[in-house]
Automatic annotation (TrEMBL):
Keyword Membrane belongs to the record: no
UniProt source species: marine metagenome
Key word Secreted present: no
Protein name in UniProt: NADH:ubiquinone oxidoreductase 30kDa subunit domain-containing protein
Gene Ontology terms for molecular function: NADH dehydrogenase (ubiquinone) activity; oxidoreductase activity, acting on NAD(P)H
Length: 147
């Protein structure tokens, strides 16, 4: 049986009930959450028996010049469904999200890579330091304002 995407509206309803004031909207099947609530939402999505998102496929970040988006791809290996969760960070300075490292150890290198290349910090990460570039490197080269 193939893995199926979760219904965005059903997911938003369940997450919204489990983590009040966390869901911004659902758009094209993507669950948009408030940036500072991402770790709470992720913990709920992992621990809720009906959702059981026990696998973090990836975390990525996109620079849209006036804001950043951080994208989480999650899978429930037991329930055989997937979800895309996004958080928006406005502005260019002091960009911080709560880490999901404590939920999925696979977030370690992904959060470090996003910090290294995009300059988005993850509060609560136990070892947030450069992973691809050397210590002392100035800036974050995948940002559109790097040069």
């Amino acid at each position: 049986m193939a893995v199926q995407p979760s219904s965005g509206s059903e997911l938003a309803e369940k997450v919204g009930a489990g983590v009040p004031n966390s869901v911004d909207r659902v758009e094209d099947g993507v669950l948009w959450v408030k940036a500072l609530r991402i770790a709470d939402v992720a913990a709920f999505m992992k621990s809720d028996a009906g959702l059981d998102f026990n696998f973090l496929n990836s975390i990525s970040a996109v620079d849209y010049i006036n804001h950043f988006e951080v994208v989480y791809h999650l899978t429930s290996l037991n329930k055989r469904h997937t979800a895309i969760v996004k958080a928006r960070l406005d502005g260019r300075e002091a960009l911080t999200l709560p880490s999901v490292y404590h939920l999925w150890r696979g977030a370690d290198f992904q959060e470090r890579e996003i910090w290294d290349l995009m300059g988005i910090s993850f509060s609560g990460h136990p070892n947030l330091k450069r992973i691809m570039l050397w210590e002392g490197f100035e800036g974050h080269p995948l940002r559109k304002d790097y040069l």
